[in-house]
Amino acid sequence: MQFEWEGVMPAVTTKFTNEDTLDLEMFSVNIKAQIDAGVSGIILGGTLGEASTLEEDEKKKLIESTVDLVAGKIPVVMNIAEQTTKRAIKAAENAEKYGASGLMMLPPMRYNSTDYETMAYFEAVAKSTSLPIMVYNNPVDYKIEVTLDMFEELLKNDNIQAVKESTRDITNITRIRNRFGNRLKILSGVDTLAMESILMGADGWVAGLVCAFPRETVAICELVKAGRIAEATAIYRWFMPLLELDINPQLVQNIKLAEVATGIGTENVRLPRLPLQGKERDRVISIIEEGVRTRPEIPVL
């Protein structure tokens, strides 16, 4: 499938049953809610998807199930987060075989690779697959930055097409645009900077709280792109306390609690994660409950 890197692309959670198996029934409920809200793609196997805990057969089931659910309407993107180049190439091969139409890709995990090693890693995978690739640039959490000079080299590979921009430096969007024009598509990867990023020229938003609030997330993106800034700002201000649940070490637990509150998910996580406890659980639930209580009307788009 040919597609543009734009609009809202949810980094969806993986749903588990009480017996710690894939809950494909609840997963389908959530994916259908995303499609109905007008998202532009589905991203599987990210941090929110608890990818490091998934077995290969589970990844296969998730991709194949999602491809069936979207029925060709929107692309299915698989995240790659591996420790070795060999495993990253195999993950890309499997994603393509199972039906994914794009890849999101982190630098090597655990080892802090040099600039040269990082570029070699991305290029090896890019040359091994026909799928388009979005580089996930998150030096805050993963300690490796893909600089603009590095992108200059990486973009010689036609299928490296986009960046999930998570440097937390809003001015980086302007630098990317000034240097590469539209050759490198930009998707904001930080929920609490998403509206600002789109205003500064980002093409879209790889979102987290969209997992629980798809209509509101899509509305912000579409309203900004339509120049209806005041309407977008009103929703974004309502959304901010919820969006802050995404920039937290327990973002998976937080967002799954929000999915429960909106009826499109369960709280089940996979060990070693555990559901939130005590005062922190009470704090998160109070934010979610207030967000649900004051949920805004969505204007006609």
Automatic annotation (TrEMBL):
Keywords: Lyase. Pyruvate binds at residue 206. The keyword Manganese does not apply. Gene3D superfamilies: Aldolase class I. The keyword Lyase applies. Signal peptide: none annotated. SUPFAM superfamilies: Aldolase. The active site is at residues 136, 164. One of its GO terms (molecular function) is 4-hydroxy-tetrahydrodipicolinate synthase activity. Pfam families: DHDPS. CDD domains: DHDPS-like (cd00408). It comes from the Bacteria. Belongs to the DapA family. This is 4-hydroxy-tetrahydrodipicolinate synthase.
